[in-house]
Design brief:
Length: 381
Amino acid sequence: MPKVYNWQIGREMEYPYAGVRPKRQAAAVFDLNKCIGCQTCTVACKTTWTSGRGQEYMLWNNVEDKPWGSYPLGWDVKILSMLGPQRWRKEGGMWVYLGKTIFEAASPGEVALGYLPEGADYAYPGVGEDEASAPIRTGYLRAPFEPWLFYLPRICNHCTFPACLAACPRRAIYKREDGIVLVDQARCRGYRECVKTCPYKKVFYNPVTRISEKCIFCYPAIEKGYIPRCFRNCIGKIRIFGYISLPENANPENPIDFLVHIKKVAAPLLPQLGLEPNVYYVPPIRVGNMDFIRMMFGPMGVEAVENYRRALEKQDLEVIGALILANSTDRVYARFKVTRDGWAIAYDERGSEVVRVPITEPVTIRPYYDEKLGVYRRNDV
């Protein structure tokens, strides 16, 4: 197998194709500290893309309740159990993954480690909903009861090294020049190798059309300068769409580069799998077990929690401003800045201002009696 460099695991790894990166890579940052698990993104995607026959069970976007939720059932536990030991070591300020990726752990004759979910695995999209973790017990001591859970919204990661693309015997899956991964439905014959090898289980088989389907990152909207549907409808304003650079080319004015590379408050989901996923998460800071964060987001996830806490404590207005701008507009923006007078401003690729949002929401306290209008204002209705 050829060798490709995966910056998320800090080393070269095996991959069936040569490491040719797209001209630019579409990416996203999700702030899990603001997700309220309302499933508005799920409904928006469902009503837009998967309302047809054979798509009833498909959730291109779903929100899972961690630590107990998963869709399809046990997708993360199963692939991590199959992968074996996952060790990391820090070398020169960079985390290097010492275990095997799913490509390196594959059996002879297989492209990548994987499994094909059973039909029943898709029957429980709401499993674990709002179920908190159990209290920690150690010998005769019992830690304070601090139950925790967080919501994990998931879409296709449009990976740099997609397992679905690598495994397709028909070469029906391809990566566009903007990094979006799509299925050529004219070429697909429904062999389901993509479903088997995608560790995130974000490729779905349509039993009616007998072809595979997946999240398309709402590319028709992106081509017109608009963000994806699930982003536009996010109630918690947790989602930022943009394009990510390699770490050495990071642009501090690019909101994705800024949060991932510069401030390092966002980390990829299960980077140890080796796909270099391009959806990044600001991990939740109120989680009782950092080992769980390490498992989900790698050691970079633990550092992201620390960096995020530090940014909030120091009132780092650039970090706060970058996160406040999340889907404050339905337009794609390429640059942002925070002004001295407390405004976060986003600009498109041509340099035109798209939106500006105050860092501190202005508050006006009206008097009980308005002398100008001669009326009393009451808080009760």
